[in-house]
Amino acid sequence: MRLTRDIHDAVGYALTNTIMTMRAAQVMLKREPEKLSALLESAREDADQALAQVRAILGDMRKSELRSAAGPGAIARAARAFRAAAGVEVDIDYGNFDWSIPSEAAFATSHFVQEGMLNAVYHGKASAIRVSFRSDGEGLLRVSVKDDGEGAADLHEGIGIAGMRERIEKLGGSLSYGASGGGFCIEMRLPLAAPPAAPPGGALTEART
Question: Who has the most CB within 10 Å: 28, 42, 58, 110?
């Protein structure tokens, strides 16, 4: 409703004003052509202002989408869905982690957890999942998703894990995964301070014990 109202006000005003200006320009072209340039310049300024307002409205909407798709609330909703739909037990330990982080980092973290839980259920046939958050106090966040499923002896990195890696490495972080106590564990490491000049490259797969 707010989006509809705001765009109506910004775009509606700009289009109405443009229509009126074009009508005035038709009359002015015959009667006072010397004033036409100033009239059109005024209309252009109104259109520029309306465009800036629409961009601001869409920017606010994007930020709102990021907030709703990230953070402990989004993770809790995903955990409830997994419990209800798959009967899997999900234990989340936030440890000493503080969610007051940039929106891009919060979104990447939430996406990692949700994708990790999906892989645990869909590929690992897990019945229990543990999600752990740890911050080392020096700007490095570690998040792991560990399950009691079938493991991954012949794991081939698919779209889900590749998407995780791309999103995390873009923020200067890294991803690792492997067998863990008969199940599977995937971990992300994300610097919450300024990222390095170039994200780490090469294979990051490593076994967990």
Answer: 110
